[in-house]
Amino acid sequence: MLLIRRFEERAGQLYGMGLIGGFCHLYIGQEAVVVGVQMAMEDGDQVITGYRDHGHMLATGMDPKGVMAELTGRIDGYSRGKGGSMHMFSREKEFYGGHGIVGAQVPLGTGIAFSNRYRENGRVSITYFGDGAANQGQVYESFNMAELWKLPVVYVIENNRYAMGTAIERSSATQDLSQRGVSFGIPGERVDGMDVRAVRAAAEKALDWARSGKGPYILEMLTYRYRGHSMSDPAKYRSKEEVQKYRTEHDPIEQVSARLLEKGWASEDDLKEIDKAVRDRVTEAADFAQASPEPDPSELWTDVTVAA
Ligand SMILES: Cc1ncc(C[n+]2csc(CCOP(=O)(O)OP(=O)(O)O)c2C)c(N)n1
Ligand SMILES: [Mg+2]
Q1: Near ion ligand 2, which residues have CB within 5 Å?
Q2: How many CB atoms lie within 10 A of CB 69?
Q3: Domain map of the chain by residue range?
Q4: How much is the pLDDT for 119?
Q5: Which atom of ligand 1 is nearest to the CA of 133?
Q6: Is 207 close to ligand 1, i.e. is its CB under 6 Å away?
Q7: Does 132 contact ligand 1 (Cβ within 6 A)?
Q8: Does CATH number 3.40.50.1460 belong to domain 2-292?
Q9: Which spans in 120-265 are helix H?
Q10: In 3-state terms, what secondary structure has residue 123?
Q11: Span 81-118, pLDDT tens digits
């Protein structure tokens, strides 16, 4: 969680310095979701998500150097500098993007689950999407097929209460998103997405369900993003007090630090050392990214389409 937090802070800085172009959606505040789910996963399980994807990549074990180099549009990035923040992939780590079209990853993630079922490989597709995406039609077409064919997919809805500048109360007729699968017979659960322990426990249950052939499962993670929707956000749709309240009372990392100290499992010095090690890793990634060259203009025609 700390690696994601520090990585995202640095990405925000590099963006401010003009080193990252295009879109950039930071994951700060939501770290417990991907980390708790990842802890429940087995090797070979796949992850797919939308454009707020840096945390998901780091959680799968993708190299921060390659992610940062991609953000800065360099040749050593995961998509050789041509995908940027929203379009990175790693077959090795079973990470399937990175998708800019809201909700588009849901049928794709369901398709991955179909492939798992077809091949009987025992893997589960973890398909993440937001509270805004939960109102997309394609989500419900996917739910129908997933339950009909008992596909091994866990839908993780990251409900951070806003879709760009629109609060969920203004856009959703029903706001308990864990129940969005009821008419298809898909079970769902609401989870405190700021508590990594709660996320892990719920994910273990959901993954067991899907892996044992019972079909899809929905986890609605109640979470919060501290930063703007993207790097250009007028921040007029919520109060500073609301953001502050989440930061001080629910921060996923602070919760863990406080628990470690309270139980005597770590000292202040131990925590400082962990923070330093993480900061060093992020600095190394940022230096690597800036030292990596931009792609040659001839690269414009490579890796863009795959000939059959
Ligand atoms: C089909 C489509 N419609 C609209 C947009 C513009 N858009 C980008 S992000 C976003 C909000 C989605 O919010 P949510 O699903 O809650 O995810 P979050 O950004 O909170 O992680 C919108 C409307 C888009 N990219 N694709
Ligand atoms: Mg949202």
Answers
A1: 130-131, 160, 163
A2: 26
A3: 2-292
A4: 98
A5: 15
A6: no
A7: yes
A8: no
A9: 137-148, 168-171, 196-211, 240-250, 252-263
A10: coil
A11: 999 999 999 999 999 999 999 999 999 999 999 999 99
